[in-house]
From TrEMBL:
<feature type="binding site">
    <location>
        <position position="430"/>
    </location>
    <ligand>
        <name>substrate</name>
    </ligand>
</feature>
<dbReference type="InterPro" id="IPR017736">
    <property type="entry name" value="Glyco_hydro_1_beta-glucosidase"/>
</dbReference>
<keyword id="KW-0378">Hydrolase</keyword>
<feature type="binding site">
    <location>
        <position position="31"/>
    </location>
    <ligand>
        <name>substrate</name>
    </ligand>
</feature>
<dbReference type="GO" id="GO:0005829">
    <property type="term" value="C:cytosol"/>
</dbReference>
<keyword id="KW-0136">Cellulose degradation</keyword>
<feature type="binding site">
    <location>
        <begin position="437"/>
        <end position="438"/>
    </location>
    <ligand>
        <name>substrate</name>
    </ligand>
</feature>
<dbReference type="GO" id="GO:0030245">
    <property type="term" value="P:cellulose catabolic process"/>
</dbReference>
<keyword id="KW-0624">Polysaccharide degradation</keyword>
<dbReference type="InterPro" id="IPR017853">
    <property type="entry name" value="GH"/>
</dbReference>
<feature type="binding site">
    <location>
        <position position="308"/>
    </location>
    <ligand>
        <name>substrate</name>
    </ligand>
</feature>
<dbReference type="InterPro" id="IPR001360">
    <property type="entry name" value="Glyco_hydro_1"/>
</dbReference>
<dbReference type="InterPro" id="IPR018120">
    <property type="entry name" value="Glyco_hydro_1_AS"/>
</dbReference>
<dbReference type="GO" id="GO:0008422">
    <property type="term" value="F:beta-glucosidase activity"/>
</dbReference>
<protein>
    <recommendedName>
        <fullName>Beta-glucosidase</fullName>
        <ecNumber>3.2.1.21</ecNumber>
    </recommendedName>
</protein>
<feature type="binding site">
    <location>
        <position position="176"/>
    </location>
    <ligand>
        <name>substrate</name>
    </ligand>
</feature>
<feature type="region of interest" description="Disordered">
    <location>
        <begin position="319"/>
        <end position="338"/>
    </location>
</feature>
């Protein structure tokens, strides 16, 4: 494999993509829809969490978000105007199945039927994510993801949505970033439901693996055989601070907790032995029942990978100590069970508004890793993007040259991976538009489209026009062309 530090193409060079490459953008339900009390929808864990004082920046919530529920036709027209070929969105579980069990509410499904129809009429390929972190609150009250029953409820929900939309939607994703659901939701508590129990986070991870397998089977039973089922993992690129054996062991520990805990069961039908050993002081993993790992290992048609920044870690020593800096929000509780002897460091280089280092070599390394470890499995970048402090100028235009440079560099890394044998089929920009950024409220803007939250007016940023040109031509325009 070539040295990853030299794989990113020069900024001004022409970078071309295969004709069938899918150019899309992504969002999630709670971050954009609003209308939280319409059409029979009931609270999700994010409704409860965001309404709990002190949990989000400024006490902000997704009650209105960017009002996509009422403005979806305008948003689809905007995507069509930009020239996007695909749109990845998530379904709100509590909009479709308010209690997390029982029959679907048809008015809830009707919203997604209308959205899919609008996309298809505009030549945009829909991709449905079933779960992007918004568990119905009733299921959390019954124990949430640490309880096995939640996985079975997810399979029922998957079947309902597959039946309703499977005739028109070919691309499906069971879970988005289950690591965040398990370890930020139940470990560090910086995401909903805000619990801080390391054993519960490991139980949640296992039941999310089980839910993926059960959900994939439920989808296939409900849909035409031509449809594709995938999962989106925020697999980390974990780098040791040095080649010292202690730092290498620390990197392995985090790699197990970030990656192996999910791709082990999903791709290989087994947890890494090193993960089981490292967490043995916390749990004996007796919640893993016979047949669970075979179920979690349901065949995949593709693998979605979400990438933002690499992780740089070391062991705690007399010479190296200090607070965590793992980029997952401030908390006295760790999202890394059994890894209290590992430190996270800020990688050198330019940073986004999230404080995340801009490093496209990590995206190349990630794609090549899964090319080696899951040969023959098509790959999609299902999220990649950056938050910057975007503001309109005096004429109301929004110029975001930092994001244009970010996208050029990362898409160049994708093309380099294609050149070196990675079967990458598409790229979904995160995000289509500014939205509710979870515990950060509305202060972090990831969108290619600027949203004035007071008026809900949408204004494409220069990055949106740049990306649209890339989507139409299959060639990356120069950074300078964005103005």
């Amino acid at each position: 494999m070539p040295d990853s530090s030299s794989t990113v193409s020069p900024v001004a060079s022409e970078v071309t993509f295969p004709p069938a490459f899918l150019w899309g953008a992504a969002t999630s339900a709670y971050q954009i829809e609003g209308a939280v009390r319409e059409g029979g929808r009931t609270p999700s864990i994010w409704d409860t969490f965001s309404h709990t004082p002190g949990k989000t920046a400024g006490g902000e919530t997704g009650d209105v978000a960017v009002d996509h529920y009422h403005r979806y036709r305008d948003d689809v027209a905007l995507m069509a105007d930009l020239g996007l070929g695909a749109y990845r969105f998530s379904v709100s579980w509590s909009r479709v199945q308010p209690t997390g069990r029982g029959p679907a509410v048809q008015v809830g499904l009707d919203f997604y039927r209308r959205l899919v129809d609008e996309l298809l009429e505009n030549g945009i390929k829909p991709a449905v994510t079933l779960y992007h972190w918004d568990l119905p609150q009733e299921l959390e009250d019954a124990g949430g993801w640490p309880e096995r029953e939640t996985a079975h409820r997810f399979a029922e929900y998957a079947h309902l949505v597959g039946e309703a939309l499977g005739d028109r939607v070919e691309n499906w994703i069971t879970l988005n970033e289950p690591w965040c659901s398990a370890f930020l939701g139940y470990g560090s508590g910086v995401h909903a439901p805000g619990r801080t129990d390391p054993v519960a986070s490991l139980r949640a991870a296992h039941h999310l693996n089980l839910a993926h397998g059960l959900g994939a089977s439920a989808l296939r039973a409900a849909m035409p055989a031509r449809n594709q089922v995938a999962v989106s993992l925020n697999s980390a690129v974990v780098r040791p601070l040095s080649q010292d054996p202690a730092d290498l062991a620390a990197a392995r520990r985090i790699d197990d907790l970030a990656n192996g805990v999910f791709h082990g069961p999903m791709l290989r039908g087994a947890y890494p032995e090193s993960l089981l050993t490292a967490t043995a002081p916390l749990t004996d993993w007796s919640f893993v029942q016979d047949g669970d790992l075979a179920t979690s290992n349901a065949p995949l048609d593709a693998l979605g990978l979400n990438y933002y920044t690499p992780a740089l870690v070391s062991a705690v020593t007399d010479k190296v100590s200090g607070p965590r800096a793992d980029g997952h929000g401030a908390s006295e509780h760790s999202p890394w069970p059994g890894a209290d002897d590992v430190l996270f460091h800020q990688s050198p280089g330019e940073r986004t508004e999230m404080g995340w280092t801009v490093d496209p070599t990590g995206l190349y390394d990630l794609l090549m890793r899964y090319t080696r470890e899951a040969p023959g499995l098509p790959l999609y970048i299902t999220e990649n993007g950056a938050a910057y402090d975007d503001k309109p100028d005096a004429d109301g235009r929004v110029h975001d040259p930092e994001r244009v440079a970010y996208l050029h560099a990362h898409l160049s890394a994708v093309r380099d991976a294609l050149r070196d044998g990675a079967d990458v089929r598409g790229y979904y920009l995160w995000s289509l538009m500014d939205n509710f950024e979870w515990s950060y409220g509305y202060e972090k803007r990831f969108g290619a489209v600027y949203v004035d939250y007071a008026t809900q007016e949408r204004t494409p940023k220069s990055s949106a026009r740049w990306y649209g040109e890339a989507a139409r031509t299959g060639t990356l325009p120069s950074v300078e062309s964005a103005g």
